[in-house]
């Protein structure tokens, strides 16, 4: 007998993954609906490219489905495991990207609406993404996980395979570097000194 969708939404990620491993396609759908947007947003923040982020998100979810039969409940959180898979894939993608001539890459199309009330928000998001792109990979990953994804330092330490103190150092240095990069753009981005 199929469990109602509302009941599936209440179950933990671990439980849904184990149900999928047991053949429950509805559990997979509920877990996919819950985690894919999170994975996609994280990949986009690390890469700054929507198409590449979609590829990474799809790869990460496929890996999750493949490990489902061996998943051991309680060893790691599903989201922590996914963040790590995404971060590693993004790091690999960024390394490959550095070997490509930037002039040979076509400009991405801007599919965002051009409504006046969104222009400033978009400018701010782009400025942040540009600034994040200037950080070293590990700093960027730590800052994104801590200040954008809202994860705790112990969770980040587990994802990045570091000590908590190293995460604190990376996020502090990354935050200072972002401030230095964005400081001169306050007026342009509509921020007051208040």
What does this structure look like?
The relative contact order is 0.10. The model has no long low-confidence stretch (mean pLDDT 83). Helix 5 (78-97) crosses helix 8 (153-160). Helices cover 71% and strands 0% of the residues. The chain contains ten helices and no strands.
Distance between the termini: 59 Å
The beta-strand count equals 0
The helix-strand sequence is: HHHHHHHHHH
Share of β-strand residues: under 5%
Radius of gyration: 19 Å
| Outline type | globular
Q: Considering DSSP H and I runs of 4 or more, what fraction of the residues is helical?
A: over 70%
Poorly predicted spans: none
Roughly what is the average pLDDT, rounded to an integer?
A: 83
Number of H- or I-type helical stretches: 10
Overall SS class: mainly alpha
Q: What summary fits the major beta sheet?
A: none
How is the topology of this model organized?
Blueprint: H1 5-10, H2 13-21, H3 25-47, H4 50-67, H5 78-97, H6 116-133, H7 137-148, H8 153-160, H9 164-182, H10 186-189
Helix pairs in contact: 2-3, 3-4, 3-5, 4-5, 5-8, 6-9, 7-9, 8-9
Main features:
10 helices; 194 residues; mainly alpha; 71% helix
Give a short synopsis of this structure.
This protein has helices at 5-10, 13-21, 25-47, 50-67, 78-97, 116-133, 137-148, 153-160, 164-182, 186-189.
């Amino acid at each position: 007998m199929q469990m109602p969708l509302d009941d599936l939404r209440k179950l933990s990620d671990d439980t849904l993954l184990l149900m999928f491993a047991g053949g429950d396609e509805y559990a997979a759908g509920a877990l996919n609906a819950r985690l894919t947007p999170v994975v996609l947003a994280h990949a986009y923040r690390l890469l700054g490219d929507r198409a590449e982020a979609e590829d990474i998100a799809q790869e990460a979810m496929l890996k999750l489905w493949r490990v489902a039969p061996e998943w051991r409940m309680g060893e790691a959180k599903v989201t922590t495991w996914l963040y790590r898979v995404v971060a590693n894939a993004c790091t690999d993608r960024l390394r490959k990207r550095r070997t490509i001539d930037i002039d040979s890459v076509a400009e991405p199309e801007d599919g965002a609406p051009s409504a006046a009330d969104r222009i400033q928000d978009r400018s701010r998001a782009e400025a942040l993404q540009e600034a994040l792109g200037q950080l070293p990979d590990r700093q960027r990953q730590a800052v994104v996980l801590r200040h954008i994804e809202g994860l705790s330092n112990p969770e980040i330490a587990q994802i990045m395979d570091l000590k908590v103190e190293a995460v604190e150092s990376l996020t502090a240095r990354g935050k200072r570097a972002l401030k230095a990069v964005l400081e001169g753009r306050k007026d342009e981005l509509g921020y007051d000194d208040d």
